[in-house]
Amino acid sequence: MPGFILEDFLAYQMAVLSNRLSDGFSRRYRDKFGISVPEWRLVAHLSQAAKISIREVYQQVEMDKSMASRAAARLVKAGYVSKRVNPADRRLVELSLTAKGRAMAAEIGPQALDFEAEVLACLPDGERDAFRKAIRILMEKCT
Amino acid sequence: MPGFILEDFLAYQMAVLSNRLSDGFSRRYRDKFGISVPEWRLVAHLSQAAKISIREVYQQVEMDKSMASRAAARLVKAGYVSKRVNPADRRLVELSLTAKGRAMAAEIGPQALDFEAEVLACLPDGERDAFRKAIRILMEKCT
DNA sequence: TTGACCCCGTTGCAAGTGCAACAATATGAT
DNA sequence: ATCATATTGTTGCACTTGCAACGGGGTCAA
């Protein structure tokens, strides 16, 4: 494999960086609220839309069906989310945040923005926007 | 959680993008060679250094100890890697590519570079270098 | 040489993950 | 009304993963 260096390989770099970011941020809420990364993602999505179904969760947030189902179950058990059957279509489920869930979201949200700002602070001033835009382009490209 | 949008959250974007890149590339060698992502990483690292130990694998490549051990075991079983005890220090293991392993590496390496080039092709010409540099900076920052 | 200590790789175990099968429900054509 | 088909969420299962414990080696001082 001539001239190939794993450390310079984009897919590898992204995997490493992604893990460090997710782990780094999850440490900030894991101990206090006892939720994992998939659970945090569900809550984050749920905080933008009063009532959503499991399907909306795993389609919009990148997540397997069963992962969304189990994350929801854990959040219900922990008292952050309530779940009821949608009366209009009884196949669907209506997930919504409880008061406890809203309180948690209200605390984690600003921490998320702080964390992101801390990370991005190490990029040169003029390049932050270009970097964010590049990420967006790549995400659309790789759909 | 006012004004927080998960889709715009860097850690989330990186996780999604990282998965898409790793999956996208792994599809190109999985069927033909039957190896997984951790195994590919071990091989990639091994192709730059004739003989390495398990420890060198998991320290240099971002990987758990047990993951490196098991990836090596699977690669040995598949005939891509040979493993023997280091006679100078019998705690250590010497991993090296077999002829079959070298052949695989010789085929996957160029494919990796092609894949990366395809992905990066969608970024504006002047911004590719800046993007790669930004990734490097963030990786060092988040160590 | 012995014993205390450290390092390496493997393995057991619990938790997480992806996939496929499943039951319950809805839809639509006949 | 009935039956075939599609959709939703859950669950079973095999596999992966991370952590901690372990056994086998090495090292160094007493």
Short description:
The structure is a homodimer of 143-residue chains. With 143 residues, the first copy, chain A, is mainly alpha-helical.
Walk me through what this model shows.
2 copies of one chain form a homodimer. The first copy, chain A, is built from 6 helices and 2 strands. With 143 residues, chain A is mainly α. Chain A has a single domain (6-113), classed as Arc Repressor Mutant, subunit A. In chain A, strands 1-2 form a two-stranded antiparallel ribbon. In chain A, strand 1 (81-85) and strand 2 form a beta hairpin. The mean pLDDT of chain A is 96. At the A-B interface, helix 1, helix 2, helix 5 and helix 6 of A face helix 1, helix 2, helix 5 and helix 6 of B. Chain A binds a DNA duplex (30 and 30 nucleotides) through helix 4.
Which bin fits the share of residues in helices of chain A?
55-70%
Q: Which pair of chains has the greatest number of interface residues, and how are they split between the two chains?
A: A-B, 54 and 54 residues
Please give the radius of gyration of chain A in angstroms: 18 Å
- CATH second-level architecture of chain A: Orthogonal Bundle
Strand segment tally of chain A: 2
* Mean pLDDT over all positions of chain A: 96
